[in-house]
Amino acid sequence: MLKTAIMRRVRTVSVSCAGAAAVLLSAAAARPSALDQTSPGLWELSGLPNAGAAVRQCVGDTAALARVEHRGQSCTQVVIKDNPTWTEIHYTCTAGGFGRSKLTVLTPRSLRIETQGISAKSPFNYTVQARRVGGCSAH
Questions:
Q1: Is 89 left (phi over 0), alpha (psi -120 to 50) or beta?
Q2: ∠ CA(94), CA(97), CA(112), 5° rounding?
């Protein structure tokens, strides 16, 4: 009788964990609705630490701007919160480092990115202004 009760609990926990994993995977795959009004293209990033001038980046998906500290790295991301005007994304990079960013849509061509996390084994925490300045030119 005790063995049967334990087996039922193990099955219940397994099903609960599988359900939670499915929710996380669907959240990871979903594009944040807050960014639906933004579009890919050439984005100019102002306020990056140790950058004397604004940095321009060609972006295929504006959700990638959440990884501003880890630009060019291979990372996975999960949408934590999604509202009509802002979204919060957590990401982890294969080369090490992770972050959490809040992207606030000021206009369809302007975002405020508040980001924090760990990069190169050190903490970071800063705010960047992102502005779409045009399309990306083919090379």
A1: beta
A2: 115
Q: Where are the domains of the chain?
A: 31-134
Model's pTM, two decimal places? Answer: 0.77
Pick the CATH number of 31-134 from 2.30.320, 2.40.310, 3.30.1300, 2.40.50: 2.40.310
pLDDT tens for residues 39-95? 999 999 999 998 889 999 999 999 999 999 999 899 999 999 999 999 999 999 998
Q: What is the pLDDT of residues 4-42, one digit of tens each?
A: 555 455 454 444 444 444 334 334 446 899 999 999 999
